[in-house]
Amino acid sequence: MNKHKFSGLIADLELGKQSLVQIMHHHGEVLARKDQEPAFFLTSAAGVVLHDFYNTVEKTFQQIALEVDGSLPAGDSWHQQLLRRMTVGLRERRPPIIDESLAQALSEYLRFRHLFRHIYGFELIWERIEPLFEALPTIHDNFVKQLDAFIAYLQTLQED
């Protein structure tokens, strides 16, 4: 195996983690202004943060699917299939990327992202997105922890 086969993927995954740091910074900014801003601004900003978070997670999964698995799922439900695929190992290719518990939590962010793309901003309701927004730091930390374990796995392959 080429010793540097996954160097580009590792770099891309690290860049994705840097994007998540920026997204979590925005999360903190929204939380800090939670009681100061009108509901529309608060809800819209929170919606953007949640949307960007899942976009970054899904982009990470797409990169792994293409570089390691060899393909992306196809069809109308490819987004859900991609998320589910990340919970299973592929024989002689890779271990699971995330556990079932994290996948279940991320599925809520996937559903929100779909909603966010298909409604007007003024239709967002803070009370409905607040649980996702409040849980985001925990979900983020869990995702990064599990992604770091996968990156460590890729690095061991490069040492062989």
The percent of residues in helical segments reads: over 70%
User: Count of helices?
Assistant: 5
Count of the domains: 1
Low-confidence stretches: none
Number of strands: 0
Largest sheet: none
Q: Radius of gyration over alpha carbons?
A: 17 Å
What's the N-to-C terminus distance?
8 Å
Taken in chain order, the helices and strands follow as: HHHHH
Overall spatial form: elongated
Provide the residue-averaged pLDDT: 93
Report the portion of residues in β strands: under 5%
User: Which secondary-structure class do the elements indicate?
Assistant: mainly alpha
Give an overview of the whole structure.
The chain is mainly α. It has one domain (7-70, 93-159). It is built from five helices and no strands. It has helices at 7-32, 39-69, 78-85, 100-118, 126-159. It starts with 6 loop residues before the first helix and ends with a helix. The model has no long low-confidence stretch (mean pLDDT 93).
What's the SSE blueprint?
Blueprint: H1 7-32, H2 39-69, H3 78-85, H4 100-118, H5 126-159
Helix pairs in contact: 1-2, 1-5, 2-4, 2-5, 3-4, 4-5
Features:
160 residues; mainly alpha; 5 helices; 74% helix; 0% strand; elongated
Would you summarize the structure shown here?
By secondary structure, the protein is mainly alpha-helical.
